[in-house]
């Protein structure tokens, strides 16, 4: 059983979380470090960060089912969970099917992969599923501890909570830029939203379900869409955006900092939300 994640986590590419950063994040009071970028099945960076810290939970956000087979991932889970009990949450998902040679329907791939994790003895309560649409959100409630939506808004969080029901984990990711100049902040956030996400079917479909239009999505995203997907401003404004997810039903919000140096942002947000 994974320890409580706390209300706030960080999300970063697995190669960009150094041991010193992980230790400081833990000391600041963040409850989890989510490792993105489709870490390989060996999960050596998960183990490295757990070795370097004492309490923080490390989660994958996510292991890509198309590129990391379930059997070696399960072996890695058992190795890490035995060494660091209660501190590893295995997040899995289909990532970006457009980027790989797809021979199977995405939903069928998810079900098959979860079946394989069952067979390998990975506990339901120690794994989470990347989920955006209602069908996969429902599956995450049935087959895992809960959902880890990416590139979403508090409105999506509200809808996801209704589908998941109470007692299931809901941890949305949200991008942030600590900068009070809106134009400068958008110049940082827009490229990270537009490429590749506004060109990927699953993310565009999700945004349209939430009411965003073709005009919002065109030309690398309208200002209104970028502002919704990338929190920006001072630490208090970012904190208000995080609280909107909490109010909508999120258990934890995991922030992905887009500033070139994330540590000052982690510190500033923690001072407002965790002090």
From TrEMBL:
One Gene Ontology term, aspect cellular component: cytosol
Lineage of origin: Bacteria, Bacillati, Actinomycetota, Actinomycetes, Pseudonocardiales
Gene3D superfamilies referenced in this protein's UniProt entry, alphabetically: Luciferase-like domain
GO terms for MF: oxidoreductase activity, acting on paired donors, with incorporation or reduction of molecular oxygen
Domain Luciferase-like stretches: 20-116
Record-given protein name: LLM class F420-dependent oxidoreductase
């Amino acid at each position: 059983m994974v320890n409580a994640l706390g209300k706030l986590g960080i999300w970063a590419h697995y190669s960009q979380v150094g041991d010193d950063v992980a230790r400081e994040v833990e000391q600041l009071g963040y409850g989890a470090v989510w490792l993105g970028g489709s870490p390989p099945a060996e999960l050596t960076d998960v183990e490295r960060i757990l070795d370097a810290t004492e309490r923080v939970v490390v989660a994958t956000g996510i292991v890509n089912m198309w590129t990391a087979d379930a059997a070696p991932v399960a072996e890695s889970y058992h190795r890490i969970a035995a060494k660091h009990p209660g501190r590893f949450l295995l997040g899995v998902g289909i990532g970006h099917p457009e980027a790989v040679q797809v021979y199977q329907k995405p939903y069928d791939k998810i079900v098959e992969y979860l079946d394989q994790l069952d067979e390998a003895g990975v506990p339901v309560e120690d794994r989470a599923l990347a989920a955006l649409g209602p069908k996969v959100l429902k599956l995450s409630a049935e087959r895992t501890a809960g959902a880890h939506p990416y590139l979403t808004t508090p409105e999506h969080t509200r809808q996801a909570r209704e589908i998941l029901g109470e007692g299931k984990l809901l941890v949305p990711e949200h991008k942030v830029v600590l900068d009070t100049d809106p134009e400068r902040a958008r110049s940082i956030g827009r490229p990270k939203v537009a490429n590749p996400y506004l060109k990927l079917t699953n993310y565009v479909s999700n945004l349209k379900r939430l009411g965003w239009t073709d005009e919002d999505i065109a030309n690398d995203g309208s200002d209104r869409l970028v502002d919704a997907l990338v929190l920006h401003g001072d630490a208090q404004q970012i904190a208000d955006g995080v609280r909107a997810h909490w109010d909508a039903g999120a258990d934890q919000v995991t922030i992905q900092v887009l500033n070139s140096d994330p540590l000052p942002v982690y510190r500033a947000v923690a001072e407002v939300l965790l002090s």
